[in-house]
Write a structure and sequence with these properties.
This protein has ten helices and 14 strands. By secondary structure, the chain is α+β, with helices and mostly antiparallel strands. It has one domain: Cysteine proteinases (Cathepsin B, Chain A, Alpha-Beta Complex), CATH 3.90.70.10. Helix 1 packs across helix 6 and helix 4 packs antiparallel against helix 5. The longest helix has 18 residues.
Length: about 325
């Protein structure tokens, strides 16, 4: 399946789609959103000297093969590199071995974890080569949070620090993303037996550091009392800007990509990705975005996405404004 390369360059943007022959949409949408993060992709690419020399870094090499063929009109080559990437991911995450529908958030998290886990080995290799390796996942996506639990009786506090590459938000019908983010940062009460004998404590989550790209996962799936997976299609308010506070500083973020789940069921449906146009930046006054629906790529805008995806938005990618 070939297209004449002599076509006008602008038409090549329509070649940015990925084939889907076996319910790959969860993978295609996740990869399209990752490719929207140009600084992240650039940081992976510029360290080729390191990861190209480490056999265990085959996943990163496969990811860069996908990057290189993104504009290609070669259907079968794209299908090949996607299949290889899926096979490599499933070596450690076995649930992706078959060709049934999977969860895009679980797939994206697995990709980031596996790429991030290669950092120690790649750092050792970089030192031998006389250079340094900067993990793109940690550099762009990882952030630290603080969980503080305080006894309501004696006031004793315990603090736990955790690192994440994405954050899950409870779906609050009709709420904005800002409000859902604030909801998980609001102090709550929980049952916890303290050494003083009291059973009630206060719990508070806070950002310690802020990532360059904040990935937010909206919890649209839950289990019923009969353990059947159910999708929640309640609308939320999507906005292009988001303010996030941390113990160090505040950060303004701009929406650059959205993964949506279409359909009503918990075990079926279809994933698509909307993202900032490859030739636009976050301050583009023309508001140029593209919708990636497997092989079909169409023009859209962020304003249209925020309006159309209120009931379907599943994973949100916000880029920090420098």
């Amino acid at each position: 399946m070939q297209v004449d390369d002599s076509q006008e360059p602008g038409h090549r943007e329509m070649w940015l789609g990925f084939p889907n022959l076996a319910q790959f949409c969860y993978m295609n949408s996740s990869l399209q959103s990752l490719l929207t993060l140009r600084d992240f992709v650039t940081d992976v690419s510029r360290q080729e000297t390191v990861w190209s020399s480490v056999p265990e870094a085959e996943l990163i090499r496969s990811f860069m093969d996908i990057v290189r063929c993104h504009y290609s009109n070669d259907f079968f080559h794209k299908l090949y590199v996607l299949l290889l990437f899926k096979i490599l991911i499933s070596v450690q995450t076995h649930e992706f071995q078959d060709f049934s529908q999977k969860d895009a958030h679980e797939f994206l998290t697995s990709v980031l974890n596996q790429m991030g886990n290669l950092a120690p080995l790649l750092s050792e290799t970089a030192a031998i080569l006389g250079t340094t390796y900067i993990c793109p996942v940690r550099e762009h996506l990882v952030f630290k949070m603080q969980n503080t639990r305080t006894c309501k009786s004696c006031g004793f506090s315990s603090v736990i620090f955790e690192e994440f590459s994405n954050l899950s938000l409870n779906l609050l019908p009709g709420a904005s993303v800002q409000e859902m983010l604030q909801d998980i940062l609001t102090e709550t009460e929980l049952e916890y037996r303290c050494d003083c004998g009291a059973n009630t404590s206060r719990q508070q989550h806070n950002f310690v550091t802020l990532p360059r790209v904040l990935i937010l996962h909206v919890k649209r799936f839950c289990f019923t009392q009969f353990f059947k997976l159910k999708k929640l299609s309640h609308p939320i308010n999507l906005h292009g800007e988001l303010m996030v506070s941390s113990s160090q500083a505040n950060g303004w973020y701009t929406l650059v990509s959205v993964i949506s789940h279409l359909g009503h069921g918990g075990n079926a449906g279809h994933y698509i990705s909307d993202g900032l146009h490859p030739k636009a930046d976050v301050y583009d006054s023309a508001d140029r975005w593209l919708r990636y629906d497997d092989l079909e790529v169409t023009e859209t805008t962020r304003a249209a996405v925020c309006d159309q995806c209120k009931k379907t938005a599943y994973i949100l990618f916000y880029q920090k404004r420098e």
